Amino acid sequence: MTKNKKNLAKTKTLILIFFLFIFLGSLQWSSSSFYLLDALKIFFTHLKGEKLSPQLITAKTILFEVRLPRILTAALSGASLGIAGVLSQGLFRNPLASPSLIGTTSGGVLGGVLFLSLGGVSPHFLGLSFFSFLGSLLTTAGILFLFHKLRNSDFTKLLLVGLSFSTFTGALCQFVISLEESDYHKSLMIYRWSLGGFYHTEWTHFLLSLFPISIGVFASFSLCSKLDVLSLGDEVAETMGVGLHNLKMKTLLLLSILVGIITSLAGPLPFIGLIAPHITRKLIGAKHKELMKYTLFNSMSLILLADLLAKNIFHHKELELGILLSLIGAPFFLYLSFKKEI
């Protein structure tokens, strides 16, 4: 095995170890008292057929009703956004292309905001996820329609359409929030949800999203070889028999669905789809199969780490995850923008 291959194998192993460390750390450290040792005690107590002590009953409730639903939903969200980021950057052949640029996220946020404004009782209510996803689907339908109309046009026009739509829907969200100023509770609920986070997640959210996201991830892996060819340019891809229009339509549809589902679960979570693929590309390389595989783990690690920080930065409150991700992601984006090779 050559030196480069050994280094690459070590890097891949470290990515997996880092994910495992962050996952266990998310179980261990939070605002409520629970320790990994308690999980072992619960397991062996059940194994022996003994009754749990009051302390272990509390620990079990924290683990299964609070920690695990949130951590698993966050990890699933990270994986989905990371894969969507790889698809977006492969589609636009640009490492600065974030999946949120095409407008799906803003459409989902608008759907959720309208639901809460028109009588949604709580972010815990599944109707919020449904209306948010419906907003994402309608946006995706509009994007795919425009892409079909722009078939023979410069592909960057679609990106400009997405940016324009994001700005427009963002203004509509602020308009709706401004109408609810007289109802402090409702406006605060809308505002907080629109900042993104997992404070309201339950097992239902995770279980309902697991299957469609898994299908989307597996379908994304099936496009890897074609995305590798697309990275060489449209003309080369066409000469090698790649159906460009169908490939781009499938890629747009997949990344829109992956982003739309996560927006419906947790609101907007910016920059994960930008940062994780870029870091992984530097560590692993640009081949899309390996890039997707390890971006999946890196994006889960990043979002779990960010969620852990958001819960523990302040003692008296939880910082909204979207704020923290923006504070980290915006400087990272500027750094990438001013690098000479980009």
The end-to-end span amounts to 32 Å
- Approximate helicity band: over 70%
Individual helix count: 14
Overall, the morphology is: globular
| CATH architectural label | Orthogonal Bundle
**Total beta-strand segments:** 0
Q: Number of folding domains?
A: 1
SS-based class = mainly alpha
The CATH homologous superfamily corresponds to ABC transporter involved in vitamin B12 uptake, BtuC
Most strands sheet: none
CA gyration radius, whole angstroms: 21 Å
Give an account of the 3D structure.
The protein has helices at residues 3-28, 36-48, 54-92, 104-117, 126-149, 156-179, 184-194, 203-221, 224-230, 234-239, 244-266, 272-284, 288-312, 321-338. The longest helix has 39 residues, at 54-92. The chain has a single domain, classed as ABC transporter involved in vitamin B12 uptake, BtuC. It is globular and about 70 Å long. The chain is built from 14 helices and no strands. It has 342 residues and is mostly helical.
